[in-house]
What does this fold into?
Amino acid sequence: DRPLTLIAGPCQLESADHAQMIAGKMKEACDAAGAQYVFKASYDKANRTSISGVRGPGMDEGLAMLDSVKKAIGVPVLTDVHTTDQCAPTAAVCDILQIPALLCRQTDLLLAAAETSAAINVKKGQFLAPWDMANIVTKIESTGNQRILLTERGTSFGYNTLVTDMRSLPQMASTGYPVVMDATHAVQQPAGLGGSTGGQREFAPVMARAAAAIGVGAVFIETHEDPDRSPSDGPNMIYLDQMPQLIETLMAFDTLAKANPMTF
Amino acid sequence: DRPLTLIAGPCQLESADHAQMIAGKMKEACDAAGAQYVFKASYDKANRTSISGVRGPGMDEGLAMLDSVKKAIGVPVLTDVHTTDQCAPTAAVCDILQIPALLCRQTDLLLAAAETSAAINVKKGQFLAPWDMANIVTKIESTGNQRILLTERGTSFGYNTLVTDMRSLPQMASTGYPVVMDATHAVQQPAGLGGSTGGQREFAPVMARAAAAIGVGAVFIETHEDPDRSPSDGPNMIYLDQMPQLIETLMAFDTLAKANPMTF
Amino acid sequence: DRPLTLIAGPCQLESADHAQMIAGKMKEACDAAGAQYVFKASYDKANRTSISGVRGPGMDEGLAMLDSVKKAIGVPVLTDVHTTDQCAPTAAVCDILQIPALLCRQTDLLLAAAETSAAINVKKGQFLAPWDMANIVTKIESTGNQRILLTERGTSFGYNTLVTDMRSLPQMASTGYPVVMDATHAVQQPAGLGGSTGGQREFAPVMARAAAAIGVGAVFIETHEDPDRSPSDGPNMIYLDQMPQLIETLMAFDTLAKANPMTF
Amino acid sequence: DRPLTLIAGPCQLESADHAQMIAGKMKEACDAAGAQYVFKASYDKANRTSISGVRGPGMDEGLAMLDSVKKAIGVPVLTDVHTTDQCAPTAAVCDILQIPALLCRQTDLLLAAAETSAAINVKKGQFLAPWDMANIVTKIESTGNQRILLTERGTSFGYNTLVTDMRSLPQMASTGYPVVMDATHAVQQPAGLGGSTGGQREFAPVMARAAAAIGVGAVFIETHEDPDRSPSDGPNMIYLDQMPQLIETLMAFDTLAKANPMTF
It folds into this structure.
């Protein structure tokens, strides 16, 4: 199996400079640790808890920032799409289109994304069982696109709480597609702060490590140099300066896991 | 308080004749029982479990069918919208625009719907706490629209299962807006049949009665003359010929409940 | 069907006088409303959240208090048992032995209780599905005892939270035994205050009404003249002086429900 | 930190020979891998799903078997207690008394166990939040006993399903006591087969690995040479002949985890 991929970046795009800064530091850390790297950031947070939450620069400006990351840093980029008409222009820049968890059952969005030349990363809905992802895979495959990633980001567990069922990783892997562990969204507390979403940043490395030990294809981590001042998802993002150490540790677990593959 | 409203109809539009037939029978039953009536049916099932699930006639044909119901039967009509561009044309025909549960946090959709002249019925997401609906209400109110209904349709409870927390009815009512109990979706088993959603039709009247006893503003029930042959949601829809009796009973509970209002 | 039974009393026994005072007021209210009445109180709270929680007078003193209620007020009494050796002496005084929810799978306790001449009320464990109660019924029936009641008191729903699934009432009723809705424990927040259990007293009538509308055999309510000063379960107990009105309303719903029995 | 301890054995005691056979093979495997080893088996399954489930040899015979393991194989032994009067005699033989998950809030049982000279392993109830274990620790510490282990074995997640929240491992570790991952009970499906409990044996190594990567003190695994013929818990026990390889892998993860301790 190939070594672990790290999908990482800030929750939302702030500026081209900021995006390149984070992508640059992350690429350096991944190169040092032998990990593959994909830059991630959103140009629109379309489902903020509150109407007053900052949404981001929008598609046109955002794609320009992503394009600048791609060219300046030389890494593949991933972003999420929310409507069918965002798919083609986004795929003109991005290597991977991501389907947000809450939208993972919207057939038209899945098909429009799948019909581009991009790979598709579907986040498993908080309301879905792992085996339900097989139906979503079939929707995407119906277009002929077989470049699919499936991401675990936590499941509804009572109110304002998510839980990550580690069994979902092998269960989704049984589709034959790579599985991603989204370590920072999995520790969110949705709307847990009333008008915004809380999080338990300190437990994101727990999720990442556990997933690496199981042998996932990729780990997804949102990171920021100053999470508490970021425009969204501050409570669960990891400090940028803690990432190199974390990546190095994850790679050690990945190497051990892939030398001892699990069978199901 | 005003007497109970019944929001009822088939899961998806099949034909103008079929829609009118169901609307006609329902209006008759509601008139007999003293209930207000709103016809409901969908023109597009945009998030079917499986790619092969029947989706419905589409917006243009569907709106024509809804318009025919409105004119021929003389009842208000409700349907759901899934994209921002569906909102204005749908509001040209329908009295109430419904936001599907999975889309209840999509800010643009909420705003586009709210900016029409229609009333907005938001289904509470299966991943949301009742008190989180206050944030959604604020999004809608930001447009000046204060014709809002809030619907309980069950919350994720483990895998492929929903549970209805009766406390959500008074909790949502504390926003000041009418609360709707969606009795048939609340007994769904999402993706419970693998490639489609199961349901426990026999328990829908349990949910409807319990909600009526608490004093909700409306009950939402999907109904069909032959549910097992309907193109979607068969396992949870109620037989059309059982509706008059059910409505009569619900009205008796509604009358008793509203004569004895609960205080919280 | 017979009219609704009310099982009610303080969470724990405080004194013979206190028990008789509550039993007396409750009997009066039930007589006035046409409800049957069973007095309930515990002599030992064996599973308090905290080691420092008050546990009650113990079995010997407690049974004397219960006996005094029985003789002075002339009502049947119910209390819970926690060990096999409590069953026989408790059954010498009490009409109904109650199996606590957390102990509902302890085979020896079920058998020891069932082997007395008392009726057995089993509270469904917070960790159990409604249909799992069939296995518990079989354990009790194996002794020849067929005087069984089954109680809903909420199911684990994330952390420190319970949810009541109204479907459990008909599902448990399908065993053929009477079903009880425990309206005050169902609104507990287990360990929700850290060192003790929280509760949402204001929602207990919601649960009671919904259950009465479905047609349960009994409603279980803990009540106290000053809940915030009671030694346990204060946050969820209902004020004693609010009970007569509540009982009257519940009886109106019960009458309506039993005139319109549900079929499953 | 000390290397991983393996707590392992058959679900229930079958005979002295059988117990010694399993303990012998496990000790050999643990010695080879550098793991500490504790033998586990139950003499009474006091809360079987069904009245017809086999319960085991009982305390007297069972303790004799455990004593024979201790002497013949030279390993510490652990078993569970269900009543206060089992505690002293069991502690006369066993090094660790285990409190079953469903009984973890029974104060008298906790105190009676804690008052022996044994160490106490408390399984976290399926209905408990990780932080609620602090109250249980306080109960045990009130006796002066500070030899405590805390075990994760899954949390109620809808009906007939458990989920393991990996965050519970560091959360319980914050008490200062060693944390145990019970990998085989965590994959149970309680009462999932109607009259007995199902399980997903194939996922037990997933849980064990993830926990080892996080750096737990011990992993608990039930094992049997022929699980499908064992008197209880067959669906989730691991084949005995697969244990040496699993232990070796877990030790590799344990070594890596403890060289890179997590901070919270």
Summary: The longest helix of chain A spans residues 16-33. Chain A has a mean pLDDT of 96. DSSP finds eight helices and 13 strands in chain A. Chain A touches chain B through 34 residues (CB under 8 Å).
